[in-house]
Amino acid sequence: MEIPKKVRWMQDLLPEQHKYFTFIKKVFRHEFRKNGFRRISTPILEEKELFERALWAWTDVIDKEMYNLVDKKWRELVLKPETTAWVMRAYIENDMQSLTQPVSLYYFEPHFRYDRPQKGRYRQHHQIWAEIIWEKDPILDAQLIYIAYKTFNLIWLKGDFKVKINSIWTPKDRIKYLEKLRDYYETKKSLLSEDALSKLEINPLRVLDTKIEDEIILAKQAPKIVDSLKKDSKAHYDKVKEYLEIFWVPYTEDHTLVRWLDYYTHTVWEFVDDSGRSQNSLWGGWRYNLLSQAIWHKDEIPAVWMWLWAERIMEAMIDKWVKLKNKDKIDLYFIALWDEAKKIVLPLSLKARDSWINTALSLWSPSLWVQMKKANRIEAKYVVIVGIMEAKNWVFQVRDMIEWNQEEIKKEEVLEYIIGKIWKENLNFYSPLNDLILEEK
């Protein structure tokens, strides 16, 4: 019988990957808090009806990409494929309208998509999201783009991405543009794939979002939605661009950058890398002023949000040889060279941990060489050696594995000695960016 393996297209986040994952969360949490965002968590499971209302039954997410299940009470549930509808439901259900508006929220959540996996995206993957609810001002669109731009630069991805923006207007105002788009593609149907032809009938905007080379060429020559904007939508879009210039955020206008659900409105944006891959999106966002009404709330609740693929950011950092400090390293390693010595070092190791010192205790071995080899492999900073003579004399051998020197320290002074050295190393003002090792390989 074979040993069971993980479910296909799921992933194990191993310790080395978690080092980057934890760092990314720290940096973005730091930036969100500085900008007045507060963290929210929503359930992994939600009723399927919520998404049928928000996304409509014909979308790929409903038809192909959701993990569906039925519980013991025969309720149809889904694993979280995205979070915007979840957060809007939580905002309404928990009467967050009574808070000071707008409400700025962020979250780090696992998401589940039963689609064909892509580079940096798995059927269970992690996304970082931020939302600003109950405000129409275009400065918030620009603010979210700025936060993303600044944070990407902080984590050493500066110059490795570009910002694309567009406006998709409002569903009501898009009607004439969609007719113009259909007319454009009418004489070009022979050049479209079956999938594109199907999208053309349902919503022509979706034809612009293609990864097929011939269709990309056609999309670039298609009518631009920004040329058809009405007064209010044009004013909103122009102000977003004006604020981006004030924020010193370089951007490119891309009229093929679209989102097609009816509750999406106005500004859309995306951060893409220069890899040349078809799946090169790192971050995106847009307005969704009409989502609340799509899930049957009586009022329009304007909102804007952004998201990123955590796994893609991790891979981008690793590909660029961005190195991080290992916060899981052992600071202090006790070597007990005989069985009775463990009774001496065990209380010391517990006290060291209470003083926030990462500490490990060796198992008994007759060989100091074997134990020192292990200390090297786990990259311990300091090693305390307790043999028979050390236990009798209450004087321990303390070896500095960085400076490679060794001193004799009295038992009652050994912890104070080690703690003093380690704390001296960590006196710098803490910022998540301190975890960066500022050198490229």
* CATH topology-level name of the largest domain: BirA Bifunctional Protein, domain 2
- The CATH class label of the largest domain is Alpha Beta
According to CATH, the homologous superfamily of the largest domain is Bira Bifunctional Protein, Domain 2
Total helices: the number is 16
Question: Uncertain regions: pLDDT < 50 for 5+ in a row?
Answer: none
Query: Which bin fits the share of residues in helices?
Result: 25-40%
Mean pLDDT equals 90
CA-CA gap between termini: 44 Å
Estimated radius of gyration: 28 Å
Q: Give the spatial strand order of the biggest sheet.
A: 1-5-6-11-10-9-7-8
Shape: elongated
**Oligomer classification:** single chain
Helix-strand category: alpha+beta
Number of domains: 2
**CATH architecture call of the largest domain:** 2-Layer Sandwich
Indicate the proportion of strand residues.
Answer: 15-25%
Task: Give the SSE map.
Blueprint: H1 15-34, E1 38-39, E2 45-47, H2 48-55, H3 60-65, E3 68-70, E4 76-79, H4 84-93, E5 103-112, E6 124-133, H5 139-154, E7 161-167, H6 175-186, H7 194-202, H8 205-208, H9 213-220, H10 231-246, E8 252-253, E9 265-273, E10 281-287, H11 291-294, E11 303-309, H12 310-319, E12 323-324, E13 332-336, H13 341-354, E14 359-361, H14 368-377, E15 382-386, H15 388-393, E16 395-400, E17 405-410, H16 414-425, E18 436-437
Parallel strand pairs: 1-5, 7-8, 13-14, 13-15
Antiparallel strand pairs: 2-4, 3-4, 5-6, 6-11, 7-9, 9-10, 10-11, 12-18, 15-16, 16-17
Helix pairs in contact: 1-12, 5-10
Briefly, what is this?
The protein has 441 residues and is α+β, with helices and mostly antiparallel strands. It has helices at 15-34, 48-55, 60-65, 84-93, 139-154, 175-186, 194-202, 205-208, 213-220, 231-246, 291-294, 310-319, 341-354, 368-377, 388-393, 414-425, and strands spanning 38-39, 45-47, 68-70, 76-79, 103-112, 124-133, 161-167, 252-253, 265-273, 281-287, 303-309, 323-324, 332-336, 359-361, 382-386, 395-400, 405-410, 436-437. Helix 13 links the parallel strand 13 (332-336) and strand 14.
